[in-house]
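Regression test case RT-17, inverse folding.

Input:
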């Protein structure tokens, strides 16, 4: 588990062996099974999670009971209800496991300690947060400006291996289209 996150971090910052050791001491391994819930709407959220293995979805349920997927998280991605995490409020998102998952958890309190003792982690998490913000902005603009075929191709760029791992109806939900429309779209793109 540690080698996965170590490789991930080394893409952005260099750590001494002592800094790595301290960081690893703050992480808690967590294993969940397919269909288990990591976070329920209404939960207190005091941690964020690094995905070592598996796939999760973060979603909201609207007042009509319809699910709206905001994010998939696969290996080397971070997931949480970040609004609840940063603002110390109850979760509005649900996060469920699509596959069996292995996670590394870091609490907000431990993250603050990490920033104090290893300041270069401020840079790491700033880069991750900036990248997440830019990805969300791209997704919003894509929903406003692009047709379903273009959104689907963008999705495949963002999640190149996910089609074999996630049911079609979940991908369609993420794209904001019907599952039947996604099937037609795939057939059309395959025949080009």
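Golden output:
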């Amino acid at each position: 588990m540690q080698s996965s996150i170590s490789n991930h971090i080394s893409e952005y910052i260099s750590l001494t062996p002592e800094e790595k050791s301290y960081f690893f001491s703050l992480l808690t391994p967590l294993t969940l099974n397919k269909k288990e819930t990591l976070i329920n709407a209404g939960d207190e959220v005091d941690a964020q999670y690094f995905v070592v293995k598996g796939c999760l979805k973060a979603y909201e349920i609207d007042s009509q009971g319809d699910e709206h997927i905001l994010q998939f998280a696969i290996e080397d991605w971070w997931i949480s209800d970040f609004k609840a995490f940063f603002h110390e409020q109850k979760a509005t998102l649900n996060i469920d496991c699509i596959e069996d998952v292995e996670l590394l958890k870091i609490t907000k309190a431990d993250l603050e300690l990490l920033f104090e003792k290893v300041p270069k982690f401020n840079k790491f998490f700033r880069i991750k947060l900036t990248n997440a913000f830019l990805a969300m902005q791209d997704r919003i603009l894509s929903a406003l400006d692009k047709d379903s075929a273009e959104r689907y191709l963008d999705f495949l760029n963002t999640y190149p291996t996910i089609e074999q791992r996630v049911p079609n109806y979940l991908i369609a939900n993420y794209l904001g289209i019907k599952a039947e429309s996604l099937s037609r779209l795939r057939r059309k793109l395959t025949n080009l």
